[in-house]
Every structure is written in C-alpha cells, then in structure tokens.
C-alpha cells in the first residue's frame, strides 16, 4: 500500500496520474468491497472529474494542494453537497444535503479525491458497525470478525487498501476502536481542533472528526489539512495549531510516559502484553516510564452512557418526518412523527434515545445527567493531576481484539464495555491515538493508545511515530 | 356581577423580535413578509450537521434591553428546551433557561408606578404555520403548511413580576415597554406583524389574600385587546368564584371578534422540556469593557425624553404632558427640540408636532418644521395656514415653508384690505361690537372667524385682534 | 438504595416523550437493557461530587460570536426538493393536534 504522502508526491512529480490512482482505487473497491462492505455509496463520476482536474493542474504546473490526487473516503455521517448522506439509517436514506461540511470543503481545497461514503453504526452509535441499517462491514483481516465501530467502514476502507486515508468520527472511541481492530492508525484530535460543521451530530460535546491512515505521518498530514479554526462551529478552537508533522521526528528522548493500569485493567492477556512491549519500545528510545494510577477513568463509562444518549436524544429529535428524510404518512402530526421515528430508527438508536430522554427527564436530571457532568469534571481534574508528572499516558485501545459477529449484540452492556479505555479522552476533550502494534493470539491486529493533554495532538503523533517504528512486524 | 371586593393580578410575558440584519444563529436575512422559505439555510432549518453561531448584535440589543430595564446583566448559558412541534425545526428551542442574560429589573410607568422585571432572556423564534381549512384556525384544519422564514429570528422574552392590578395598567406597562424597546433600537414594535407578542397571566384574589389560580391568555395582537382580554378574563374568574366554582389553570385564547377568552385545546401530555445546556454553543460572558461600550451607546429612554420636553416647555400641566407623551411616542421630540433651539416657542412646536405630524404620511425636515412654527409664532402665517404648510412639507420635507405658503396662496393680506374687511365686519355686527367694546373679550374669536371667512383664511388672527383692540381704544 | 427503579411504565412514558412506539416485547427488552445501564451508572450516582461544577466543554471557551451580516443566499429549491411534502413553497403536514406550548 502506498501512503497518502507517497501518492501525493508521485502525482506532483508526474510519475503517477491522479486519474490512474483513482481508477485503481475503484478497481480495488469493486474487486473486494462486495465481501467487506466498507462503502455505502461511491462517487465515481465526480471523483474521476476531480482527478482529471488534478492532472490538468499538474500538466500546467499550477499550484497543488497537499492531498492533490489522493483518494479519500468519508464516514457517511459527514454532509456532502448533493451526495446522499445516510448515517446508515433508514430515516435518512436518500437524503442529499444542500451543503458540504467544513472538513469536506477543506479536503476538496487540498485536492483530495473523495471516492465514497463509508458504513457505520447507525448515527455512529455502536462499537461494531453491526448497527448499520444497510448491513454490517466485515473486518478485512478476517471476514468473520467485526471491524469495530462506529467508523467501521472508514477503518476497513484503509485496512483493505482501498484508500490510503479516510475520516471517521469519534464520540466514545469510534475512530480508535475500529483502527485497533483493523490495524490502522486512528487519531481522535482535541475537541474543537476539527470543525464539526457538517458532521451529523450524535453527542455534540464529545463528537470529533479524525483520520484513519496506514502511517502516523499520513495522520499528521491530514491534520495539517483539516484542523484549525472554523467560524461556523462555535466550539472550534481559535488558536494556532501545533506543528503536527514537525512532531514526527522529535523522538521520545527525555519524555515521561505514564503507563496507566487503569487503561489496561480488564484487557485480555495478549493485549496487555503488547502494551508492555510498546512501553519497552519507548523506554528503549529514551523515554522514562512512570506507573500512574488514574482510577477515576473507570467512571467515564457511566458518565458517557448518560451524557452521550442525553445529547443524542435531543440531536435526533429533528428526524420527525416534516422537513427531510423518511416520512410515514399519518393524518395527524404526532402520529406521523411517531410512525416515522419508529420505522426509521434501529434498535440501538431507540435504546439510546430513550436512555437519554430518561436521564434528562424531570426528577432524574440531577441524579443522572447532572452527576455525569460533574463526573466529567472529576475525570478532567484527575487527568490534569496525572499530567503534572507525565507527558503522555500509554494504555490499550480496546480490551480485546476484534470479536465475532453477533457476539455482543444481545447484551448492550458488554458492547458498551468495549469503549472503556477510549471514553476518557472524549470526556476530557483530549487527543488520543491508536497505533497498530502487532497482533494477538488470534492473529488479529492490536492497537496501543497514546493519550496526551488537551491541544497536544502533536505529542500523540510524536510518541506514535516511535511506536510505529518499533512495532512488531 | 361586578369586580367588587376583588383585585386583579397581572404579569406579562412579552416576546420581542430583535431588529437585526441576520438571524440569531445563522446568516439568513431577518425580514418579515418575504416569500415562504426563502430565508432558510441548514442552520435555521435544523438540517443534520448544521451548527448555530451566536449573533453579536443580537446580544448587544438584548443587553441594551436589560440596561434599559435596570436589570443585572450576567454571564449566561443557552439551554435546549426540548419538545416536538412542527414549526420548530430542531424540535428543541435554544433559549436561556436558569442563567438568563438579564435578571431582576424594573420599569417605571409614566404615572410613577414601578413594575418589577423578573428577567429578559434571549431565545430563537419558530417558523409559522398556516392552517388549511375554512376556519384558518388550528382546530378543524386537515393540513398545515409551514414557512420557516421566521425560524431562528432573535427574540428577547421580557417577563414581568405579577405587579399589575388592572387592564389599564397592564396596557400602560406594555405601551411603555414598547416605547423603551423601540427607543433602544431593539424592535420596530409592530404588534400586528408579531414583532412584539404579549401573553398575559391573569388571576384574581381578595386583597391581602394569596394569589389565585392564574390563566395565561395568548393571541393579544394590540394594546387594546390586551386591556379588553384582561378585563374580560378577570370578570370571568370572579364570576366563577362567586358561583362557588374553581378556576382551572390553563392557557386561554383571546377571540378579538367575540370579545372573550376561550380555552385552548392542548395536547393532554404534560410537557417535560428536558432542559440541558446547549452543547453546540459556549457560555456568553458579557465582559466589563463590552458592557461599558454598550452602556455608552444607549440612547435616551422615553421617560428621560419626556422630561426633557417638559423642561423645554417649562410646563407640567396634564395637557402638556399628554402632548409630550404623544410626541415622544412618535419619535417626534427631535423635531420639537430643533425648532425650539432655532427660536420657535416650545409650546407651539410641541402642539404642532403632536397634532399635525404623522410619520406614516412623511415628516418635514427639521429646519423647515422649525421655520414653519416660527412663521406662525411671528404672525406671518395663521394657525390654519401653518397646518396646511406642514401638510405639504410632509411630502416635500426640505421645501422652503415660505415658498410653500406662497404656492398655497397664503400671501399676507395688504393692510388696507384687512382694515376694510374688519370695518365691514364691525358694521355688519353692531350688537357684538358693542359687547366687545364693553369688555367681553371672548367675542374677539367671533370677529376673527368672520374676518377669516371673508378673506378665505388669509387674514392673520393676531393682526385682527390688534386692530380690534386699537379700535376699542 | 435510593436509586429510582426503571419500570416498563417509565420506559413507555419515555418512549412517548421521544415519539417512539414500542411493541410489548420491545418494551420488556428495553426496560431490561436500560435498567442494566442505569445499574452500571450507580457507581457515579453514588459519588459525592458536591464540590465540583459541571463540565459542558473541556476548554472553557466563551463568547463565540459572529457579526450580524447576511451571508446566506436562498437555497429554497434544494431544501424544498428534499421535503417529504410541499404545497405553495411550504412544508406540508397533517393535522396539528394542539397549539405550541
Ligand atoms: Mg419564550
Ligand atoms: Zn438560516
């Protein structure tokens, strides 16, 4: 697999044409996506036109964007103008947004070629991509295993070699978990680094777009392209971004790495072993290992499964059959709303809407939503304290390797537990990256996770680059 | 049955549409009367992926309202008020809940009564539905059509304390509030277009007893209906109590044509708004500098402007106060002040402004109004002539009053003609002349009328009187 | 435990608030599953966090404001084209049962 950086360079030098690169991507997709089902829709015509424009620009010696000619896939919860955006839900089937999201605009401006929209758990709610209304995605490493979720299609598209770069969204681990299961790099940036404008909301205070790549350097490059202030998103951070690419070559000499038991507790032995090896790689590269305990992190799961559904219950109210999307016609509006939502949402979405509605309802707000918000503060304080003595935290991304289809569907709580190690970064708004680090006893990929303080995405990349270099082959 | 022995208790909730160029959270035009659904975008239509960004000017107008109502202007957080309704695109309203921008103020009525202001908070308006069917009302309609042009228009909701005790007083409050809102440039105050909407909470009690059960009255489209509805409703409640019945707490609809309030059939479900902090927005913190800047930009309020005019006129009799109220209410006080500064008598300028000027018909320029009043004061123009000149100046504001007078044929009568006419009038009315000579001054008016009739209004009243006095000796 | 117990009636009420219709079977399953999540959440429900404020956003941003400028051009045709039912350039719905609250 050629990386995004290599492809962009080859196209710029005229060694490859953008059209041939795009054709190759579509050929690979048509050869193998029948069994993987990473994509919900493809945009071949537009992609080929865009690729031809890149080639024309190369021929004319016109300035090229940093991703000129690079095929990219987008999770199907990012609005693309005139291009169906479904969130893998029947309620949005066929809906074509009248606008492009900010990330999509920035990718176009950088010359990237958007080839398709990828599968996900309906409205990004899930950890396996089994909750898609249009059928699951399969793990390219083993088709009997889930790719993880909710951005399973984006992870699989990169892992299968269809595209060198894709984007997903991460609300409680939805980038890092499928990255770990599929053996790709997956970065959840600091909250507010990447605009959410055009990202269909699941839980607004936690959602964050981020890249899937085969290399840490590609993740850094994609951050250069899409990160940065957007006036259309009031929660966007209006500050200069760190030097993402510059961080790659810094090494970890002198860095204090917190090996965090609370990000390992309950992990399978093969996963725990890989994390220990990863720590050893960093130590060998000059980092100091420090054991740190942040027991508050465990409380994140409960807080998350109250806060995210609460926000979701409100964010998903607008799917009422009045203005767009599915409508189940009835004589009166209440009956129409109810029939539409009942027919349009899948079981997991209904479950979370009800959980969130309950957590916000009269009499329960303080006990649930209020408590969860304070727990968020507790976790932030705990992480702040931890970062007084270490620069980054190291742990597992997920407790296990990819599981089989149907293993956890009947028991939502066991599914929710997959997010135990990824959730704290969302609650804190901090960046975290999952880096492929060998395989487990089942020969499936394992990811190790690097957590850094808020707005220090560069530190995640810096450490990840060393782990990547030292990962078992 | 009368109201004898009962006291009416009234609190008002006034929704005021702010006069901004764009909407509260998006860059759509804020305009009344445009073709349906032309001023809508992903944000104000609540399309998936869209995000709100707060309008600075709307905040400034809201702060002006708070300052004008003597409120404490405080840091504030927007919340989501969740309920399904087809004219509300997101199925939640973004509103300030337990942390309103303006809290705890007061409004002084022209008669000196002080009404408490609980809060004045910001929120977004909804779309507007039209009900298809013979009645045009919601009940009985088979279908409704929704126009979202109004969706997202900035509102400030001003909630009073239950401090008013009569329909007349509530009307005075609403009128004074409207004058203040218009003076600070927050609204155009058009009740009939819905840019100011009033709901009244009405209850009755025996004086000194606790508050009775209140009913909320909606659909009050004019100050007159406000007063009528309150008076009707209070009487209805007294009648119920006197008949030994209980008052049901409910929302009632004012039927202007029938002159009565009626119960509004509402859904049986109790509302549970599930308020929680709007995660797509960040807290609003009015900093000292910003507040100071807004305070410095505050225009004079109606109360101050009325006092200024009274001072200018050097009078405080009720007749002058009434004229002053009219002039300030119509924003004509700058014209009166300019005329007075230019040397015209204040009382005359005030009377002419109050009785002869109407902004809807057009207004004379400041200098031409001042000059017209001065010409009348000096006796060059009669009152009738001056009024006619002002009528012309309304459509040709900057014309020279003397030229207009000439155009209208208001040339001064030659002294000879005047004297001959007066002599003829005295000869024709010997009895009245005798009484006038004996000191009955009231007859001067009689002679002026006769001379005016004979000269078709061209005579100057003062000149006539001067001649009469001279002849009486 | 002072924990409120989740009953099928609670879930039915919540479903109504959320405009969802559940079969009896779904009602039973959801009651079970939601109870499990709330049971797990008893770890935070039991915490004494009185000294802590809530966190709505991690970085404490304030006053994200835009200037009062009209930036949108009408996208009425696109928006109406995506609507389930339209009449006279307006969104059409069936009977509305009550006035807005
Ligand atoms: Mg309101
Ligand atoms: Zn708009």
What does this structure look like?
The complex is a heterotrimer of chains A (473), B (473) and C (101). Chain A is of the alpha/beta class. Chain A has helices at 4-12, 18-36, 44-60, 102-109, 152-159, 176-182, 216-226, 269-284, 300-315, 333-344, 347-360, 366-389, 412-416, 423-428, 457-470, and strands at residues 39-42, 71-75, 113-118, 165-169, 185-188, 209-213, 256-260, 288-292, 392-396, 432-439, 445-451. The longest helix of chain A is centred in the last third of the chain and has 24 residues, at 366-389. The model of chain A has no long low-confidence stretch (mean pLDDT 97). In chain B, helix 7 (333-341) packs across helix 9 (366-377). The radius of gyration of chain B is 29 Å and the shape is elongated. With 473 residues, chain B is α+β, with helices and mostly antiparallel strands. Chain B folds into 3 domains: 7-294, no CATH class; 302-407, no CATH class; 415-472, Arc Repressor Mutant, subunit A. Chain B has 15 helices and 15 strands. Chain B has helices at 56-68, 167-183, 223-242, 288-296, 302-313, 318-329, 333-341, 346-356, 366-377, 383-395, 401-407, 415-428, 430-437, 443-455, 461-472, and strands spanning 7-17, 54-55, 72-73, 78-82, 92-96, 102-108, 114-124, 128-132, 143-147, 154-160, 196-205, 215-220, 251-255, 260-263, 276-277. Chain C is mainly alpha-helical. Chain C has a domain at 1-47: Glu-tRNAGln amidotransferase C subunit, N-terminal domain (Histone, subunit A). In chain C, 37% of the residues lie in helices and 8% in strands. A two-stranded antiparallel ribbon of chain C has the order 2-3. Chain C is flat and about 55 Å long. The two termini of chain C are 36 Å apart. Classes of the chains: A alpha/beta (473), B alpha+beta (473), C mainly alpha (101). Chains in contact: A-B, A-C, B-C. At the A-C interface, helix 9, helix 10, helix 11, helix 12 and helix 13 of A face helix 1, helix 2 and helix 3 of C. Strand 2 of chain B pairs parallel with strand 1 of chain C, so a sheet runs across the interface. Bound molecules: magnesium ion and zinc ion. Magnesium ion binds next to loops of chain B.
């Amino acid at each position: 697999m050629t990386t995004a950086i290599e492809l962009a360079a080859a196209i710029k030098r005229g060694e490859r044409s953008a059209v041939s690169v795009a054709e190759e991507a579509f050929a690979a997709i048509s050869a193998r996506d029948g069994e993987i089902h990473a994509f919900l829709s493809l945009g071949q015509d537009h992609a080929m036109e865009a690729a031809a424009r890149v080639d024309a620009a190369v021929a004319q010696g016109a300035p090229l964007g940093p991703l000129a000619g690079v095929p990219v896939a987008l999770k199907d919860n990012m609005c693309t103008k005139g291009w169906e955006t479904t969130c893998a839900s029947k309620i949005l089937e066929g809906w074509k947004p009248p606008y492009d999201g900010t990330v999509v605009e920035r990718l176009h401006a950088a010359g990237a070629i958007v080839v398709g929209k990828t599968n996900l758990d309906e409205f990004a709610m899930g950890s396996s991509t089994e909750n898609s209304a249009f059928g699951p995605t399969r793990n390219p490493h083993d088709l009997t295993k889930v790719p993880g979720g909710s951005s399973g299609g984006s992870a699989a598209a990169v892992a299968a070699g269809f595209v060198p770069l894709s984007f997903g969204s991460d609300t409680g681990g939805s980038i890092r978990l499928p990255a770990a299961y599929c053996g790709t790099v997956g970065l959840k940036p600091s909250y507010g680094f990447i605009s959410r404008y055009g990202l269909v909301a699941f839980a607004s205070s936690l959602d964050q777009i981020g890249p899937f790549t085969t290399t840490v350097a590609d993740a850094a490059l994609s951050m250069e392209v899409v990160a940065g202030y957007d006036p259309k998103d009031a929660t966007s951070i209006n500050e200069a971004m760190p030097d993402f690419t510059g961080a790659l070559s810094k090494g970890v000499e002198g860095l204090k790495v917190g090996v965090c038991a609370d990000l390992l507790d309950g992990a399978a032995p093969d996963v725990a072993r890989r994390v220990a090896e990863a720590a050893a790689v960093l130590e060998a590269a000059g980092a100091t290992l420090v054991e740190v305990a942040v027991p508050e992190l465990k409380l994140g799961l409960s807080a998350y499964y109250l806060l995210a559904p609460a926000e979701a219950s409100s964010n998903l109210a607008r799917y009422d059959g009045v203005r767009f999307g599915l409508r189940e016609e009835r004589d009166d509006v209440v009956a129409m709303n109810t029939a539409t939502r009942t027919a349009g949402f899948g079981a997991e979405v209904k479950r979370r809407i009800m959980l969130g509605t309950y957590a916000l309802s009269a009499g329960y707000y303080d006990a649930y939503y209020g408590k969860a918000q304070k727990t968020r503060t507790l976790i932030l304080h705990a992480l702040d304290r931890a970062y007084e003595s270490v620069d980054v935290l190291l742990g597992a991304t997920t407790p296990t390797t990819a599981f089989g289809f149907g293993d956890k569907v009947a028991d939502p709580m066991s599914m929710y537990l997959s997010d135990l190690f990824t959730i704290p970064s969302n609650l804190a708004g901090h960046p975290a990256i999952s880096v492929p680090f060998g395989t487990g006893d089942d020969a499936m990929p394992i990811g190790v996770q690097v957590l850094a303080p808020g707005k220090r995405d560069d530190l995640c990349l810096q450490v990840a680059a060393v782990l990547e270099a030292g990962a078992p082959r | 049955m009368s109201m004898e022995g009962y006291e009416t208790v009234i609190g008002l909730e006034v929704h005021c549409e702010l006069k901004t160029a764009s909407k509260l959270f998006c860059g759509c035009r804020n305009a009344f009367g445009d073709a349906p659904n032309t001023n809508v975008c992903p944000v104000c239509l609540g399309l998936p992926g869209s995000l709100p960004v707060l309008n600075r000017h709307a905040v400034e107008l809201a702060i002006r309202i708070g300052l004008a109502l003597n409120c404490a202007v405080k840091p504030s957080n927007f919340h989501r008020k969740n309920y399904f309704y087809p004219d509300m695109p997101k199925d939640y309203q973004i509103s300030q809940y337990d942390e309103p921008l303006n809290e705890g103020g007061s409004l002084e009525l022209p008669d000196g009564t002080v009404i408490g202001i609980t809060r004045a908070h910001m929120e977004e308006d909804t779309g507007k539905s039209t009900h298809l069917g013979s009645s045009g009302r919601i009940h009985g309609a088979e279908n409704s059509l929704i126009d979202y042009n109004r969706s997202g228009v900035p509102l400030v909701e001003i909630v009073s304390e239950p401090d008013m005790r009569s329909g007349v007083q509530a009307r005075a409050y609403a009128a004074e509030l409207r004058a203040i809102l218009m003076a600070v440039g927050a609204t155009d105050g058009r009740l009939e277009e819905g840019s100011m909407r009033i709901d009244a909470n009405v209850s009755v009690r025996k004086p000194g007893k606790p508050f009775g059960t209140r009913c909320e009255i909606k659909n009050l489209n004019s100050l007159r209906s406000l007063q009528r509805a309150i008076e009707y409703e209070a009487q209805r409640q007294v009648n119920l109590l006197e008949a030994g019945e209980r008052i049901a707490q409910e929302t009632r609809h004012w039927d202007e044509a029938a002159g009565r309030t009626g119960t509004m059939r509402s859904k049986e479900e109790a509302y549970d708004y599930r308020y929680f902090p709007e995660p797509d927005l960040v807290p609003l913190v009015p900093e000292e500098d910003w507040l100071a800047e807004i305070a410095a930009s505050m225009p004079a309020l109606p109360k101050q402007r009325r006092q200024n005019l009274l001072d200018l006129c050097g009078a405080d009799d009720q007749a002058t106060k009434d004229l002053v109220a009219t002039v300030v209410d119509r924003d004509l006080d700058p014209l009166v002040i300019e005329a007075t500064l230019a040397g015209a008598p204040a009382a005359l300028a005030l009377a002419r402004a109050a009785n002869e000027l109407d902004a809807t018909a057009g207004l004379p320029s400041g200098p031409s109004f001042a000059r017209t009043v001065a010409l009348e004061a000096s006796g060059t123009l009669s009152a009738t002539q001056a009024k006619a000149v002002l009528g012309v100046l309304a459509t040709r504001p900057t014309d020279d009053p003397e030229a207009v007078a000439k155009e209208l044929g208001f040339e001064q009568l030659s002294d000879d003609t005047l004297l001959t006419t007066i002599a003829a009038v005295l000869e024709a009315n010997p009895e009245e002349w005798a009484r006038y000579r004996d000191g009955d001054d009231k007859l001067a008016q009689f002679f002026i009328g006769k001379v005016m009739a004979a000269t078709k209004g061209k005579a100057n009243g003062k000149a006539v009187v001067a001649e009469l006095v001279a002849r009486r000796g | 435990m002072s924990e409120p117990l989740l009953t099928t009636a609670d879930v039915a009420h919540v479903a109504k608030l959320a405009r969802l219709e559940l079969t009896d079977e779904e009602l039973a399953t959801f009651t079970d599953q939601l109870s499990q999540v709330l049971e797990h959440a008893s770890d935070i429900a039991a915490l004494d966090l009185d000294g802590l404020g809530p966190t709505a956003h991690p970085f404490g941003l304030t006053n994200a404001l835009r200037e009062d400028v009209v930036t949108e051009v009408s996208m009425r045709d696109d928006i109406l084209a995506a609507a389930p039912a339209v009449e006279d350039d307006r969104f059409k719905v069936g009977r509305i049962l009550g006035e807005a609250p």
